[in-house]
Design goal:
six-stranded antiparallel sheet; 473 residues; 6 strands; alpha+beta; 15 helices; 12% strand
């Protein structure tokens, strides 16, 4: 339990640092309270459990049996007539309990934490930053103002070559303040931005009178200053919490029963759309008998020939009638083709949406199954290599986890693109590593020297001797 708990929290911490590195630009410079950041990190940590738990099971089981093998405890137990399966049985029961708890967590806790984390992260991303003015880029985060600077001293917060465009009148760039330097600060209530400018001027274009518009004199005003303080009112800088109901329809925010209900509803809608589209194509495009009968000669209409009898119908038409009929048929075919292409795009979008829910449904079970698979890889592998600590076990655990994760990500991409169904795509990574676990368990039970370098050296020596004799002949 010690290695399991410690490795679990270490993995969660590493994944949490990766999350912070990814979203650091959305968090810094926004004046977020510590409680908001702590809440976001707490929900994010809970959402990282599906990645951390299987790796913790793999690493801890490998460390436990590696330590027992390194201290010759496994040798003593086996010499007493106790089999490896009996030695592993307590941890097997514990892993089953962990797997059941993982399923309960992924079905009941994970949707709630994902909902809280995604909604809070969205609110943080939508909040306008306090100080995100970058050099050489116009900053439009403040209503009715556009700010640009050419340089900045991050130690003193002094900005250089400051230009502030005032759009509060709604008539374009009629008012601008240009300064050699300046600095900004936000009041404690976050209601106003106090800007102090040095060595600059204010430029404002005045509105022309009706008589002056004919002559276009372009009146303006320019005021020079050594120091000027501008107070800009801020709105929307407090964190506004979005209604969580807007995120509940996401597949990651649902349990099994909600996923089943949503998938059934979406599947019924898709079937209805397919039937409706098929009926429209058959009725309006496939057989246009009544439309074409009005263009055919009376003797052909009286014969009541089938529309598929193209040769018979065409034989009774003049050349102009044939050209007109084929042109009209080509136009109708192109219209139907465009309709089918647009409808296919809609069907693909609906199928991909259903696939996302199917993937999340299977993910509820793959987490639990992955814990069992990684245990049957780590425990026998630790008994074989007989190395404890965080050295060799950590390297081997990361290697197996990377293989599992790469296969899982690749298969999920194929599922999202409708290349393979959801069931094999979500389970293929576990099914590929399961034979490896069975093989390692068999080798550990039979005390096979699978990690003995002498075994492999003897094998390659035998191959070299065989080829040397073959070449001499």
């Amino acid at each position: 339990m010690g290695p399991f708990v410690s490795t679990f929290f270490v993995v969660v911490f590493i994944l949490l640092m990766q999350f912070l590195w990814k979203y650091i630009d959305d968090l810094i410079g926004k004046g977020l309270e510590f409680a908001v950041i702590a809440e976001l990190l707490m929900y994010t940590s809970a959402s990282l459990v599906p990645l951390a738990l299987p790796l913790a099971v793999l690493l801890s089981s490998l460390m436990a049996f590696g330590n027992m093998g390194e201290n010759f405890e496994l040798t003593a137990l086996k010499s007493s007539g106790i089999s490896l399966q009996r030695i592993m049985s307590p941890l097997i029961y514990l892993t089953v309990i962990i797997s059941v708890g993982a399923f309960y967590f992924s079905n009941n806790v994970l949707p709630y934490t994902n909902l809280k984390m995604r909604s809070l992260l969205y609110d943080v991303q939508q909040q306008r930053p306090e100080m995100q003015i970058r050099e050489g880029v116009f900053y439009n985060g403040i209503d009715n103002y556009s700010i640009k600077i050419s340089g900045r001293n991050y130690r003193t917060n002094m900005m250089y070559d400051v230009k502030i465009y005032d759009h509060s009148l709604g008539r374009g760039n009629l008012k601008v303040s240009v300064a050699d330097s300046g600095f900004m600060r936000i009041t404690e209530d976050k209601g106003h931005l106090v800007t102090t400018l040095y060595s600059g001027y204010n430029y404002e274009e005045m509105e022309e009178r009706a008589r002056q518009r004919r002559e276009r004199t372009f009146p303006h005003r320019r005021d020079n200053f050594d120091q000027q303080v501008l107070i800009i009112e801020l709105t929307g800088f407090d964190l506004q919490r979005t209604d969580e109901e807007a995120f509940r329809h996401n597949s990651q925010m649902m349990n099994l029963s909600q996923l089943d209900f949503t998938m059934d509803s979406l599947q019924l809608i898709l079937v209805e759309r397919v039937d409706e589209h098929t009926g429209n194509i058959v009725q309006s495009a496939f057989f246009k008998r009544e439309a074409y009968q009005r263009k055919l000669p009376e003797e052909i209409v009286k014969e009541e020939r089938h529309p598929a009898d193209i040769v018979g119908i065409e034989s009774g038409m003049t050349i102009d009638q044939r050209i007109s009929a084929w042109d009209q048929a080509a136009v109708d075919a192109r219209l139907v083709r465009n309709q089918i292409i647009s409808t296919k795009t809609d069907f693909d979008w609906r199928n991909k949406r259903i696939r996302r829910y199917e993937m999340e449904w299977h993910r509820k079970f793959t987490l639990s199954f992955a814990c069992l698979v990684f245990f049957f890889i780590g425990a026998p592998l630790g008994a074989i290599i007989r190395k404890g600590g965080l050295g060799m076990p950590a390297v081997i655990s990361v290697l197996f986890f990377v293989i599992y994760y790469v296969i899982d990500i690749s298969a999920q991409k194929f599922v999202k693109e409708l290349v393979i169904p959801a069931f094999p795509g979500m389970w293929i990574s576990s099914f590929i590593l399961l034979p490896a676990g069975i093989f390692l368990t068999y080798k550990a039970t039979s005390d096979s020297p699978i990690m003995n370098t002498e075994t492999y050296s003897n094998f390659f020596r035998w191959i070299s001797i065989f080829f040397s004799k073959f070449t001499k002949k």
